[in-house]
Amino acid sequence: MRNNTKRISLLCGLLLCLIGLSHAQGPNVPALPAVNKQSMKDFMDLRFGMFIHWGPVTLRGTEIGWSRNRQVAQNDYDSLYKEFDPVLFDADAWVKTAKDAGMKYIVITAKHHDGFCLWPTAYTKYNIMQTPFKKDVVGALAKACKKYNIKFGIYYTVLDWYERSYPVHNDGKGMAPDGDMNKFVQYMKSQLKELIDNYHPFLLWFDGNWEQPWTNEYGKDIYAYLKKLDPTLVVNNRLGKGDHVTLSDQSVGDYATPEQKIGKLNMSFPWESCITICNQWAWKPNDAMKPLKQCISTLALTAGGNGNLLFNVGPMPDGRMEARQVKQLKAMGDWLKQNGASIYGTLGGPFTPDSSFASTRKGNKIYIHLLNASNKHLTLAAIPGVHIQKAYSITGTPISVTENATSIELQIPDTLVADANDTVIVLEADKSVEDIPVMARN
Ligand code: FHN
């Protein structure tokens, strides 16, 4: 009897606590609009996109935003637009480079932390139309993406070191007294409406949420505003103050954004890793470029973690992308021509990835990615309730598969020439494998 009473009083206590928590947010905090599930699924099925960091700073070859008041004095940096004349800019060429790479979407830095706008905005003169070039870069890219059936996304910073109403100018002088965040948020809303109305991006990639003036409340206000303008819009998690790599109740946005690293395998929230093909985000002369094997294994390990890869290039001041980067991206596209079924529209897992192994899945197929195909025999853990009916390389070479109570044994024939970047093996199961819980590979 005493135990029952104790149990009931514990339950009541728990219930009161939960009721209290539900009001901890205060009765008037507006619930954020629900994410559009179809938009998110369509986005995650794309798996591979091109990030582009570009602006007048490329004239100096230093990092966009961050080199202002560092390698480049503020007045010099803020005057670069007067020289910016990328006469070789060709939006079709950029989009064809992305398409040839097997990329399915593009995200351009319409406005980075330096506040310069790559479109003819009505809300500041600090924009592309004040340069000798005088052409709408964002508009040209949006048009080319539509022409080549590539999804178009926009990067927009929530910190703006040039705009006076934003109180931080990264000039070592701390908070500016003439800052006015309400005015700044209105400026943001006006520009974001301009971008959505004129260019119809499928995705907005926010950045710069770490500085003191930005709050979760501003983030929620902007998120709700955007979703009213376009309920299908996909928005990353950098509108909120939460960390970039997770999606939590501190986040504002639809997916997590690990940066310069491959996100961890998880099936509970969507994520996209943003990683540079070189070291710098914006163009840098003679910057070190990642080898092809690292580029392809990064894509395989990202997909194997159930995430997207947003792979960054920094075009040159004359408007061209570097020939070596274009060549590298083409080689990724050639790999995807043969192996794309193991990346696009797949889910990560069911086997957890490691430095030389990843797995992806779709329907009744599991794609095994061997990033170091030296061994000819592979042992995988048996999958409870699932029978592997056959195995073959994605290039069609049959692979012997035997199963027992604890393992799946694969014997790779010597006739199969390993792919130096990533050898993909297909396992066909007797049922869908999409709902299998994530498991160790052996
Ligand atoms: O400060 C930016 C940086 O310049 C770059 O744009 C990356 C890309 O995600 N984001 C910020 C650093 O986290």
UniProtKB/TrEMBL annotation:
List each copy of the Glycoside hydrolase family 29 N-terminal domain by range. Answer: 36-340
Extent of the signal sequence: 1-24
Q: Which domain of life is it from?
A: Bacteria
Q: Name one GO cellular component term.
A: lysosome
Name-wise, this protein is Alpha-L-fucosidase
GO MF entries: alpha-L-fucosidase activity
Spell out the Pfam families in the cross-references. Answer: Alpha_L_fucos
Q: What is the lineage of its organism?
A: Bacteria, Pseudomonadati, Bacteroidota, Chitinophagia, Chitinophagales
Q: Which InterPro entries match?
A: FUC_metazoa-typ, Glyco_hydro_29, Glyco_hydro_29_N
Alphabetical keyword list: Glycosidase, Hydrolase, Signal
- What is one Gene Ontology biological process annotated in the Swiss-Prot or TrEMBL record? fucose metabolic process
